[in-house]
Every structure is written in structure tokens, then in C-alpha cells.
Amino acid sequence: MSSTSQERILEIAAQYKEIFPSLGIHPEEVKMNKKIESELEKITELILKNEHNICAIGEIGLDHHFIKEKDLYPLQKRIFENMLNIAQDLQLPVNLHTKGAEKLVFETLPSYNIPNVNIHWYSGPETYLKIGIDRGYYFSITPAINYSPAVKNTATVVEKEYLLLESDGPVKYANEIGAPYMIANVLKIISDLKKLDIKEMEIQIENNTRKIFPKLFSI
Asked: Do residues 9 and 21 make contact, with C-beta atoms less than 8 angstroms apart?
């Protein structure tokens, strides 16, 4: 995400009390934004300047699935490590993208002292899912739970105390653009998988959100 996009996010969040911004550089930016390397310093300064106005660093991470150009991986890793350093310095949680690079992401994380980690839309190998569970990471579940066995497995295996919900719009789920209203259905599916009352699951998700993103409830 460019520095202009980050500034726009802050502007929108300032207008609506329901919106709590998270800033960071998505791993796909190394391909989508040819200027991202030159903008890194400016984005870093913007995040540091707004540390009291943001609740997390993200979405950040590594992607070796959608990004096939291996020559871009060193820059992607450098940006990821820069974002992790910011999260560590500001003691903010991170929201992580790991697609196709789960091994490297999970090997990198222990080197940083970060208050909490959320793994976004996890659909990778079972090995790293179990490592994340053992480390106490959170896992956010998207509307892909409607059709993805991997996402259903994540929602089933991860204890209810470490689950979060997300719409991740405007990506498409079976040709339907992701939007917040879809979260209600995600909650119902998880409740059914866990064999829990939907209200109990809803309260649990809220409590989880309060734990990992405390600034959401204080900004």
C-alpha cells in the first residue's frame, strides 16, 4: 500500500468513530507498486507519527503463492522485517499474510517481541498451523469458510479462544465481493463446527478481539 493510500486510510478513520485503522505494507505491493521500495522510509515515518491512532501493524507478511517472481522475495522480506521492527518498537499486534511462505514467516517471528500475532486467512500446511496454535497465535476466519476445506479445518482445529472474524473485502468469495455483512454467516458456521451456541461464540469472538486489539476499545 502506497504512502498516499495510508494517508487516505487515516483520513477516513478520523471521520468515522467505527473505523480503527491498521497500517502496514502488504507483501503483494512489491509487484503491484513499483515505487514501494522508495516509499518505505516515508511509510515508516507515517506509521511512527500515527502510533496513537492505529491499533495494529498490518496486513503485512510474505507471499510466495501469488508472487511468483523470486527476484522480488528479498525486497519482500526486507519490508516484512521492517514492519515487524515497527510493531516491536510500538508494541502493537500484527496481522499477517503467509500464503505460500508459511515456513519462512514462522521461522522469522520468534526473533521479534510482538504483543500478539494474528494469522489472516490461514490455509497452509497443517505443520505450521499447529506451530501457530502452540505459540498462542490468533487466526482470523474469512467467508472462504463456505467452500474452503483448509479454512474450515483452521476454524475447527484452533481453540475458540484464539479465533477472530474478518470479511477481507473487497476480495471475491465465489464471485461475491467480501463485505462486513458476511461475518454473521462466518460466525454461524464456526458455531456449528464447534457445536456451540451462536451467542456464546459471538461473545467469545468479542473477548478475543479485545485481547489482541485492545486499542480498538480505547481509541
From this structure: yes
